[in-house]
Design brief:
heterodimer; A: 165 residues; mainly alpha; 64% helix; B: 141 residues; alpha/beta; 5 helices; 43% helix; elongated
Chain lengths: 165, 141
């Protein structure tokens, strides 16, 4: 068994990204669950394609997204299936980025609903930029670093590179 | 985890599995926990009802307006005396912008809604989001 320690520079950035993103998703999901009606109303004002004409689907989406965020946040924080969870988080934030960009280009003036009732800020380019940054960081955490510390990589199990770096 | 497990292909496959699991979980948990969302009061189904005859009388007297959500064929077969408001079926239709001032002016006026005989009018969802005094028109009276 190889006990060579990993270089800190390659091991910790993805872990920090996962912890921050996971905490953000846990917090966001928890806040939304605390006021689902407000979140549903925010989605309604966005007049999203498909959802705007189907109230049942809109409500289902409003009820489900917070649980999705909580589950994904838990995966990221626990570092279980760390890289796949980072990729899912990257896709989620990429979807948020695309959605907010579309809303901004349409001149949408409503609230973003990102953090439920806590953050009642109107959608702005800063939100778009932040979501894009988080998406990029998550993709980097999924693919960018080798030798990431996870629950299923015990501290003593150093990498035996089978693929080229 | 070995490098094999960290290959891009496995990461993508793992993410698909994780997504599927999370989607199932997120669809299932609202039912288990009983945490449900509901839309604001103006979006609740209409509880106020009025007969067609009385709605037309009020409309002609200027004390209310009729919103006709029936299909164009039905509207042509049985037009509302004195006229009625007709709205687009698509929420993204630019005609909504032209209708906005009219709808805003109706805040204190009873709006009598004639629903389609079958199905829903997609535009009604948009109407319900406004703080209007909506009444359902009973066509059988």
């Amino acid at each position: 068994m190889d006990t060579e320690p990993r270089p800190i520079s390659s091991a910790w950035p993805p872990l920090v990204i996962r912890l921050i993103t996971g905490s953000l998703l846990l917090y966001s999901g928890w806040l939304k669950l605390g006021d689902l009606n407000s979140f549903a109303n925010t989605l309604d004002t966005m007049q999203l394609p498909v959802l705007r004409d189907h109230p049942g689907l809109l409500l289902q989406f409003a009820e489900s997204l917070p649980w999705f965020e909580l589950g994904l946040g838990a995966l990221l924080v626990s570092t279980f299936a760390a890289r796949p969870a980072s990729l899912v988080a990257g896709m989620l934030f990429l979807a948020f980025t695309a959605l907010l960009t579309s809303l901004r280009l349409q001149g949408f003036e409503g609230e973003c609903g990102c953090l439920g009732p806590l953050l009642s800020a109107r959608v702005g380019w800063m939100h778009v930029l932040l979501d894009a940054l988080v998406a990029g960081a998550c993709f980097a955490a999924a693919f960018g670093w080798r030798n990431q510390p996870t629950m299923d990589t015990a501290p003593s199990s150093a990498e035996t590179p089978a693929t080229s770096e | 985890m070995s490098s094999l497990a960290e290959s891009p292909r496995n990461i993508i496959l793992g993410s698909l599995l994780a997504s599927a699991g999370l989607i199932i979980l997120s669809l299932f948990l609202p039912r288990v926990t009983g945490l449900h969302a509901k839309l604001p009061d103006p979006l609740k189904p209409l509880t106020q009802e009025i007969s067609y005859k009385l709605a037309v009388e009020n409309s002609l007297a200027g004390t209310g307006v009729i919103l006709d959500l029936r299909s164009p064929d039905k509207r042509a077969q049985n037009p509302v005396p004195g006229g009625a408001i007709v709205v687009p079926e698509e929420s993204g239709d630019p005609k909504w912008d032209k209708l906005a001032p009219l709808l805003e002016s109706l805040v204190d006026t009873p709006v009598y809604v004639i629903f389609p005989a079958q199905g829903e009018h997609p535009g009604f969802f948009k109407i319900r989001s406004r703080p209007l005094d909506l009444w359902s028109v009973n066509m059988s009276h």
